[in-house]
């Protein structure tokens, strides 16, 4: 088995590439939003200046989901015992605690770093490798932290809303954080050999999609707008550590019920 962290690229190089990609896109979006709209055209939503393109990608993602991912997730949900399903979800959630720990340190959040380290230790040692979430019983609830939140903590703007092929809703800052978390920061995934890691990643995607099926009943109105607003509200909630002031996205309780799934 490979040692932890042996496949990590240098963090500084990846971070530099992330910033090089994010900052120009934020600038271009800001200029596009400030430019006067042509006479007779539909005003550009400042949250979503690329809405026309995003809707096409959203439609593509829904087609892939409808014909492939959702049927697999429904079968998984139907035939997997609830206890096994819960254990799989707990296992993958436990793997994210190293990410939570690293980004808590980067954000100078000492208490959150201690909680993330404690959760990973308790769940790994006493929770059968993370299959049982014993840390929550020890009053150590999860505190999600990713590098997108770290960039926001240090003043990097979110940028415009983006719908990415296969990956779903995002922003330049969120996607930059995703890339950094995946390729630069320490991860428990480094201990998994190929090709097992690909099977494990596939199972994680299916498990996550299966967990989202009940939340679909809360979607109302235009599904694209609902998903966009729920995602942006959830990211604002995380960036501000649960404190969202003058939230422009909240329009009803349905969105609040779906936030935890993003």
Automatic annotation (TrEMBL):
InterPro entries: MlaA. One of its GO terms (cellular component) is membrane. Residues 1-29 form the signal peptide. One of its GO terms (biological process) is intermembrane phospholipid transfer. This is ABC-type transporter Mla maintaining outer membrane lipid asymmetry, lipoprotein component MlaA. Pfam families: MlaA. It comes from the Bacteria. Keywords: Lipoprotein, Signal. Belongs to the MlaA family. The keyword Lipoprotein applies.
């Amino acid at each position: 088995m490979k040692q932890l962290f042996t496949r990590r690229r240098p963090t500084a190089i990846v971070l530099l590439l992330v910033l090089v990609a994010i900052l120009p896109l934020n600038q271009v979006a800001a200029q596009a939003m400030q430019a006067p709209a042509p006479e007779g055209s539909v005003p550009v939503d400042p949250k979503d200046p690329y809405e026309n393109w995003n809707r096409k990608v959203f439609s593509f993602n829904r087609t892939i989901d409808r014909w492939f991912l959702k049927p697999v997730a429904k079968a998984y949900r139907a035939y997997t015992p609830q206890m096994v399903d819960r254990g799989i979800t707990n296992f993958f959630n436990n793997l994210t605690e190293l990410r939570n720990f690293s980004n808590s340190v980067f954000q100078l959040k000492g208490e959150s770093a201690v909680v993330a380290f404690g959760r990973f230790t308790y769940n790994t040692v006493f929770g059968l490798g993370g299959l049982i979430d014993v840390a929550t019983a020890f009053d150590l609830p999860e505190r999600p932290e990713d590098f997108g939140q770290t960039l926001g903590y240090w003043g990097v703007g979110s940028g415009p809303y983006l719908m990415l092929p296969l990956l779903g809703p995002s922003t330049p800052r969120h996607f930059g954080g995703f890339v950094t978390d995946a390729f630069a920061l320490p991860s428990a995934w480094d201990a998994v050999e190929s090709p097992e890691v690909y099977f494990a990643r596939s199972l994680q995607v299916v498990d996550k999609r299966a967990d989202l099926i009940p939340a679909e009943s809360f979607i109302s109105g235009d599904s694209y707008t609902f998903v966009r607003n729920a995602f942006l509200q959830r990211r604002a909630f995380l960036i501000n550590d649960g404190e969202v002031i003058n939230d422009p996205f909240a329009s009803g309780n349905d969105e609040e019920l779906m936030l935890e799934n993003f």
